[in-house]
Structure formats: structure tokens, C-alpha cells
Specification:
Layout: E1 4-7, H1 11-24, E2 27-33, H2 40-44, E3 47-52, H3 63-73, E4 77-79, H4 89-97, E5 101-102, H5 107-114, H6 116-125, E6 133-134, H7 141-151, E7 155-159, E8 169-171, H8 177-192, E9 197-201, E10 207-215, E11 221-233, E12 236-242, H9 249-265, E13 270-278, E14 284-290, H10 297-304, H11 308-316, E15 333-340, E16 342-343, E17 349-350, E18 353-354, E19 357-359, E20 367-371, E21 378-379, E22 386-394, H12 397-409, E23 412-414, H13 420-427, H14 430-433, H15 441-444, H16 446-449, H17 458-482, E24 503-510, E25 513-522, E26 525-530, E27 533-541, E28 546-551, E29 554-563, E30 566-571, E31 574-581, E32 596-598, E33 603-608, E34 615-616, E35 621-627, E36 630-635, E37 640-645, E38 652-653, E39 658-664
Parallel strand pairs: 1-2, 1-4, 2-3, 4-5
Antiparallel strand pairs: 6-9, 7-8, 7-9, 10-11, 10-13, 11-12, 12-15, 13-14, 15-22, 16-17, 18-21, 19-23, 20-22, 24-25, 24-31, 25-26, 26-27, 27-28, 28-29, 29-30, 30-31, 32-39, 33-35, 33-38, 34-37, 35-36, 37-39
The chain binds ligand MV4.
Length: about 675
């Protein structure tokens, strides 16, 4: 076994590989880009080497530089993770030439699977079932059209060099064939620099079922059962599970054996995945083989109890597979949900920004979280926006699914928009619960999967008010304790209300609506006038944005995350954002210097309407900030003269930064 391994990746997979290495007593070398200097994978490894600027092609894709780091750090092997260099035959070969073990298959096996039509030919020879179709070398239009007639419409034209759905055209009628062929060729040549195509029978409602295989360098190969990854969006997997719903033991053996034959046909070594497309009746056909450890490998680990990274390390070090086929047992059911920084309301566009709050469900033998980020980290444009993989196990599918729904409810992210509500809707969908998974699932159920935004409930408003008042009280108490005169009546911790009848109104903006909640201070509680009636509220603030509340005798815990005037309330798996416009609460935390205006939240200065020396009047607009897609106008707090302006248009400001100062006019 190796003593030291370099991990040529970042994020959750680099962390996941590092943890297995640590368990096995293998020292780890991380590589990182300038953007990842404070990343979790850097901290988890024993040493970390800077390899370049943020863009992947200048850092994580620089094979030569990474091999140099391996040589200089004394690492004997490189684990490529997935993505980046993991399926780069040239890199695998360069490792070998440098005397470093590439923890993956031989370069020739990567190459053999790189071309779809070549891979299909190998698989046909090995007796692996293929979708009825034409994968030949003759690319004449007449030959391809004849093949389509023979196969029967609808057919699918695919790029031979392709993958991931690029250059795929469905053709329903013979008269459309020539036009679609020309389009497929253009796409194939633009995407892959190769305009060759193949023609297949178009399968309606297919499922994506893949088989995990493993081979060693001494002639053994096994499969570790299947995963169903049918629930996808534009070829991006969203939810994966093992085993596949409805799979029979006989079909499992048949698919497993076909996958093992596929691996053996190309002299495979290490972890691989053979993807099949399956028809509703269970018939299955080879699609492609992925020559790496896949993102969704944890569901296989959960149902087999094996650590696939440990298997990879052992096999790469020359050892035989840890288990024979007969010793592998499938137990229970597992799901993986991928939590992404993306916006389901905005066509799932990747979202970026700082993770202000991250609270994850309790983990253990049945709930696992693989992640590369921590609270405070930035999700940048440079890398995949996956925040975490949530993996759960249960005795059977419904037990596992219940656990998934529960764990998703407890998964809180504030900062970049995420797909957690979408994942929850999927996990709660009756058709999903019934195991009716197929590749068109999300499209088919689109309307019921993207929840409508609802107005803040009374419970949410009550939590927001309670959190604000408790915070103000705490800050008053802090100030009192810090001051030289802690008993001064001005520091009364419960005296936030100085008006006559002890009430105060908070104004919230809730997705375009204004909601006002008046709170009356009563001994031991607040009496809140909520839209739906009065509520007695009391509670305490905990650490990490937690609040314990008692609302009319109902006890509950929630998270309330504050970012300047923005409040995010996370309760019962619902996330609600409110903006609190209240002169009493905003900016109470610090004794603000008279005439000094500070940024209420981090953002960008989008305009500055005054200059130093200008005379301004109270209420005059001075500067506009933009944060989280909202604009804030900074207004003069007093009549006076602008003493200095600290930021110009286009500059970034951090929360609390002094924007400008006004010398008050007496
Ligand atoms: C197909 C198909 C229907 N019929 N081939 C999409 C990506 C590529 N790896 C293969 N894909 C498909 N091939 C035939 N003959 C439907 C798809 C397909 C798909 C396959 C697996 C998972 C998700 C998918 C989503 C859309 C289309």
C-alpha cells in the first residue's frame, strides 16, 4: 500500500478521498487553486500545494504541474477524483511515465471507451446487449437512412464521439431524416470535431440504470449491483438510488454479468461504471462506460458496506480485490440527493455567493453527508456549484425515502439559492415514492415540483419578530455590561420600548408585500399582533443562528439568519426571506458614529450621487448599494457637509464598512 497519495481534485470528492486515506494511515497531498486557499480539502490533507489561479485550466487541469507536485512531495500515487483529469488518457500515461501510479484504469481502457461507436463494437463482441441500431463506418446518408428504415421510427441519431446528450437528434418520420442528420452532424462536429454518427431505435420512457464494476490487476472482476439515476435534468443527475426500484434478482445478475464482461473486454482495472438504458419491461442495453469513480458511488457503499476508495487504493497498489462476487451482499436501500447552489425558479441557473449559514442533519450510519464546503465559504463561478451530497440508508425503499425527506428538511443553507426545496418536492412526490422513475420524470412532473412562493405564515412572522426583539435585548444587555454604569436606566435590557404603551411595530417586506407586526411588551413575553390574530411569544437565542421559541405554548426551534435588514427564517423545512425595515433594529448593534454611514450588508456600490464637500439635507439620497439582487439607497441622516466618500461606483463593500461621513451642521 502507498504511504503518500496526491489528490488531484477539490471539493467533496477530494475530502472524501482524504478521509479514507487518513483511516488507512496514508498521508495525503492536496493541490489547490488561489480560490481554494481556505477550502476544506486543503485543511483535511496533511499538506497542500498551490498550483495556480482559480480557473480550472490554470490549476486543477494542469497535469504536468500536478505530477511535479507529486514528485516533489514524495507522493507515490495520484487519485484524480471525478471530472478534471480523471478520464484523461494522456494524464494517466504521463503519470506512468513519471513513475507515479494513476489511481484509475489503464490509459488504453480510457481510450477504448472514449469513442461511443468503438465502445459499442467492443461491447457487441463481448456479448453485451446494444440498442438495435447501426454503428458502422459507412456514413453515406443513404446507408444511414436505410438503417433507420430497418430499425423502425422513431430513431435517434447520436454523435459517435459524443456523450452526455450532445449531438443527439430524435427523428420521427423518414421525410425528416436528411434534415436531422445534417443538424446532428453540425452539432457533432462543433462539439467533438468529428461528424460521424450512429443511428439507434429511439426508446420511449427509458430508465438510466448503471452497474458498478471493479477489476484488479490479477484477473478478478466483480460488480457491486446497480444504481438507478433516472431522475435527471438536462443530463445532470439529481437523485440517485441503489438498488433500482423493481429490479428482479434474475435481471440484476444478468446486468451485473454483462457489466463484468464489458469491463473484461477492455482489460479494465479499478472502479468503473457501465451505464445501461432500460426499457419499462426491463430489457436493457449498453450506453457507455465511465472509467472513473462516480459522484453517486456512495449509494453503492451504503448498500454493500464497502469503501470504494479503499478498494481503488488497494487495487492500484497491486493487491487483489478485497472480496469475491459471492461475498458481496446487497442490503437495504440508499438514496443520494445532490444539493446544488442553483435557482430552480430561474431555469436552474448556477447561484454563487457566500454561504452565510450551513446547518446539516445529524449524520451516522444511516445518514451521510459528503461535502467540501463550510459555513462562510464562497460558491464561485469557477467550479461545479454542488454544495453537498446527502446520502441516506434504510431497510427498504420507503424507510430510506422517509429518512431522505427528514434529512432534507434539516438541511439548511442560506446565501446562494439552492435546490433543497426542489429536492424535497421530488422526494415527497407520490410517483417517486411509487418508484415510477424514468428519465422524463422531472419534465413530466415539472409543475408540481417547483413550489409556488407563499406569503410568510404567522409562525414565520412570529419567529422573525421574536428573533429581532431577543437580539435587541441581548445587545442592550451587552452594552450595559460593557458600560461603566451597568445599572443606568438607559441600559434596561427589557426596555427597548420607550414609548408610552410599551409597543413597537416592525415592518417587513415579504416578496413585494408589506407586512407590519406590532408587538406589545408584557412581563415574560411579547404579545404579537399577527395577520391571523394575537400570539404570545417568548424564547431564547442559541448559538449558530438557532432560536427556541414558545408561541402560544407551542415550543419549536428554528434558525433565523440575519444579514443586515435581511432575515431568513428556516423552520420545518421551509425557508422564508423577509426584509426588516425598522429604524430601531437596523444598525442597533454598534454605536454608529454620528454622521457616519455604514453598509448594512455586503454588496456593490452601483452609484454615488454626491462628492466630498457637497452640502446635503437629511433624507437626501447619497449612494445606492446592490446586494442579493436588491438595491438600497443610503440617505443622509442629518443636514451637513460630506466630509469624505470611501467608495466609488463599482466597488465592493463589506458589511459594516464606513461608506461616507457627514459633518453635521448645527
Ligand atoms: C437514448 C435515449 C433513447 N433512445 N438512446 C442521453 C445521454 C446519452 N448518454 C444517452 N441518452 C439517451 N439515449 C436511445 N436509443 C434517451 C436518452 C436520454 C437519457 C438517457 C439516460 C438518462 C437520461 C436521459 C435523458 C434524456 C435522453
Amino acid at each position: 500500500m502507498f504511504d503518500k497519495v496526491l489528490i488531484a481534485n477539490r471539493g467533496e470528492i477530494a475530502c472524501r478521498v482524504a478521509l479514507t486515506c487518513r483511516r488507512l494511515g496514508i498521508r495525503t497531498v492536496a493541490v489547490y487553486s488561489e480560490a481554494d486557499a481556505h477550502a476544506r480539502h486543503v485543511d483535511l490533507c496533511d499538506e497542500a500545494w498551490l498550483i495556480g489561479p482559480a480557473p480550472a485550466r490554470e490549476s486543477y487541469l494542469r497535469g504536468g504541474r500536478i505530477i511535479d507536485v507529486a514528485l516533489h512531495s514524495g507522493a507515490q500515487a495520484i487519485h484524480p477524483g471525478y471530472g478534471f483529469l480523471s478520464e484523461n488518457a494522456g494524464f494517466a500515461r504521463a503519470c506512468e511515465e513519471a513513475g507515479i501510479v494513476f489511481i484509475g484504469p489503464p490509459a488504453a481502457a480510457i481510450e477504448a471507451m472514449g469513442s461511443k461507436s468503438a465502445a459499442k463494437a467492443i461491447m457487441a463482441d463481448a456479448g453485451v446487449p446494444l440498442v438495435p441500431g447501426y454503428h458502422g463506418a459507412d456514413q453515406e446518408e443513404s446507408r444511414l437512412a436505410a438503417a433507420a428504415d430497418e430499425i423502425g421510427y422513431p430513431v435517434l441519431i447520436k454523435a459517435s464521439a459524443g456523450g452526455g446528450g450532445k449531438g443527439m437528434r430524435r427523428v420521427d418520420r423518414p421525410e425528416d431524416f436528411a434534415r436531422e442528420l445534417a443538424a446532428a452532424r453540425r452539432e457533432a462536429s462543433a462539439s467533438f470535431g468529428d461528424d460521424r454518427v450512429l443511428v439507434e431505435k429511439y426508446l420511449l420512457h427509458p430508465r438510466h440504470i448503471e452497474v458498478q464494476v471493479f477489476a484488479d490487476g490479477v484477473g478478478n472482476a466483480v460488480h457491486l449491483f446497480e444504481r438507478d439515476c433516472s431522475v435527471q435534468r438536462r443530463h445532470q443527475k439529481v437523485l440517485e438510488e441503489a438498488p433500482a426500484p423493481g429490479m428482479t434478482e434474475a435481471r440484476r445478475n444478468e446486468m451485473g454479468q454483462a457489466a463484468v464482461r464489458a469491463a473484461q473486454a477492455i482489460g479494465y482495472v479499478g472502479a468503473g461504471t457501465v451505464e445501461f438504458i432500460a426499457e419499462p419491461d426491463g430489457r436493457f442495453y449498453f450506453m457507455e462506460m465511465n472509467t472513473r469513480l462516480q459522484v453517486e458511488h456512495p449509494v453503492t457503499e451504503m448498500i454493500t458496506g464497502e469503501d470504494l476508495v479503499e478498494w481503488q487504493l488497494r487495487v492500484a497498489a497491486g493487491a487483489p480485490l478485497p472480496r469475491e462476487q459471492s461475498a458481496l451482499e446487497l442490503q437495504g436501500h440508499a438514496f443520494e440527493a445532490r444539493i446544488y447552489a442553483e435557482d430552480p425558479d430561474n431555469d436552474f441557473l448556477p447561484a454563487t455567493g457566500r454561504i452565510r449559514h450551513l446547518r446539516t442533519p445529524e449524520t451516522g450510519s444511516d445518514v451521510r453527508i459528503d461535502t467540501g464546503v463550510r459555513e462562510g465559504d464562497e460558491v464561485s463561478v469557477h467550479y461545479d456549484p454542488m454544495i453537498a451530497k446527502l446520502v441516506v440508508w434504510g431497510d427498504d425503499r420507503s424507510a430510506a425515502l422517509r429518512r431522505l425527506r427528514h434529512a432534507l428538511t434539516d438541511f439548511e443553507v442560506v446565501g446562494p439559492t439552492t435546490n433543497t426545496a426542489f429536492l424535497k418536492a421530488l422526494a415527497a412526490h407520490p410517483a417517486f415514492a411509487a418508484g415510477e422513475v424514468e428519465t422524463g420524470f422531472i419534465e413530466q412532473h415539472r409543475d408540481t415540483l417547483i413550489p409556488e412562493r407563499e406569503p410568510a405564515s404567522d409562525r414565520v412572522l412570529a419567529l422573525a419578530c421574536l428573533a429581532e426583539f431577543l437580539r435587541i435585548d441581548e445587545e442592550a444587555a451587552d452594552r450595559a455590561a460593557r458600560s461603566g454604569d451597568p445599572y443606568s436606566p438607559w441600559h434596561h435590557t427589557t426596555g427597548w420600548v420607550l414609548n408610552d404603551d410599551n409597543h413597537h411595530t416592525l415592518h417587513f417586506r415579504d416578496d413585494g408585500r408589506d407586512v407590519a407586526v406590532t408587538a406589545h411588551y408584557r412581563p415574560g413575553h411579547y404579545l404579537l399582533e399577527l395577520p391571523g390574530g394575537e400570539t404570545r411569544a417568548r424564547g431564547t437565542l442559541g448559538r449558530e443562528d438557532r432560536i427556541q421559541a414558545d408561541l402560544d405554548g407551542v415550543r419549536l426551534t428554528a434558525s433565523v439568519v440575519r444579514d443586515g435588514p435581511h432575515l431568513t427564517i428556516l423552520c420545518d423545512g421551509h425557508v422564508h426571506e423577509l426584509v426588516c425595515h425598522d429604524p430601531l433594529t437596523v444598525g442597533m448593534e454598534d454605536e454608529v458614529r454620528e454622521g457616519s454611514l455604514t453598509a448594512p450588508m455586503p454588496g456593490t456600490v452601483i452609484s454615488v450621487t454626491i462628492a466630498e464637500g457637497d452640502t446635503v439635507t437629511e433624507g437626501q439620497a447619497l449612494m445606492v448599494l446592490e446586494a442579493m439582487k436588491m438595491e438600497y439607497t443610503i440617505k443622509a441622516t442629518t443636514d451637513g457637509v460630506i466630509e469624505h466618500v470611501n467608495f466609488a461606483e463599482g466597488e465592493q463593500v463589506t458589511e459594516g464598512a464606513e461608506l461616507l461621513a457627514i459633518r453635521a451642521e448645527d
